[in-house]
Amino acid sequence: MRSDPVADRVADAVRGSPARLGGVRLVAVDGPSGAGKSTFARRLVAALRARGDAVALVSTDDFATWDDPVSWWPRLAAVLDRLATGCPGSYRAWDWTSGLPRPGAVVEVPVPDVLVVEGVSSGRASVRLRLTRLCWVEGPDRARRLERAVARDGESCRRHLEAWQRFEDGWFAVDDTRRHADDVVQPEDGAAVVGA
């Protein structure tokens, strides 16, 4: 994977910030669907690993479904609680290969130096005190994000993705996620704004 100067800057900021999940630095990569969160998260993981950190990556897609966009959080919180005590965690992921979720494999999460959780609602208010860093991926305008998500998930998901975007509008307005971000990443032009 090619070097990414934005991911490099965020990785350095993560390493310079304290762990707040026991000895684990927890990083959330949040933002709307189709913004480029998964791509940025993979680049951040690569940048952290290049610096010698043991890094685990968890996607909220392993937990959320079209019908349950955010109330699944206690399942992930149980994993975070275990990691905070220095114990590995695990969860059963959803398998999306058919386009609809069905129970998938059990995912083991060893205790890492850094845990990157990427996906919609990963930087929610209820976890912010445990975060080392919150990254918001801005992405392009809504119509382009929809087309990117359809290209990724398939035309059969368009109706679900449109409903998901409407849900996101309300969720992010109430959660005020972007305002709390330490980093605002704009992958379209590779720029980042690093906040307080």
Write up what this structure looks like.
The chain has a single domain, classed as P-loop containing nucleotide triphosphate hydrolases (Rossmann fold, 3-Layer(aba) Sandwich). It contains 5 helices and 8 strands. β7 and β8 form a beta hairpin.
Any chance you could write out the topology, listing elements then pairs?
Blueprint lengths: L4 H11 L9 E6 L6 H14 L4 E5 L13 H12 L4 E7 L6 E8 L4 E5 L12 E7 L4 H12 L4 H18 L7 E4 L4 E4 L2
Parallel strand pairs: 1-5, 1-6, 2-5, 6-7
Antiparallel strand pairs: 3-4, 7-8
Helix pairs in contact: 1-2, 4-5
User: What would you report as the Rg, rounded to the nearest angstrom?
Assistant: 16 Å
Helical segment count = 5
**Could you give me the name of the CATH homologous superfamily?**
P-loop containing nucleotide triphosphate hydrolases
Please tell me the CATH architecture by its name.
3-Layer(aba) Sandwich
Specify the biggest β-sheet: 6 strands, mixed
Per DSSP E runs of 2 or more residues, the count of β-strands stands at 8
Mean pLDDT level: 91
The CA-CA distance between the termini, in Å, is 29 Å
Helix-strand pattern, N to C?
A: HEHEHEEEEHHEE
Helix content: 25-40%
Indicate the structural class: alpha/beta
**Proportion of residues in β-strands:** 15-25%
Query: Which term fits the overall shape?
Result: globular
CATH topology: Rossmann fold
CATH top level label: Alpha Beta
Strand order of the largest sheet: 2-5-1-6-7-8
Descriptive terms for the model:
single chain; 196 residues; alpha/beta; Rossmann fold; six-stranded mixed beta sheet; two-stranded antiparallel sheet; 5 helices; disordered C terminus
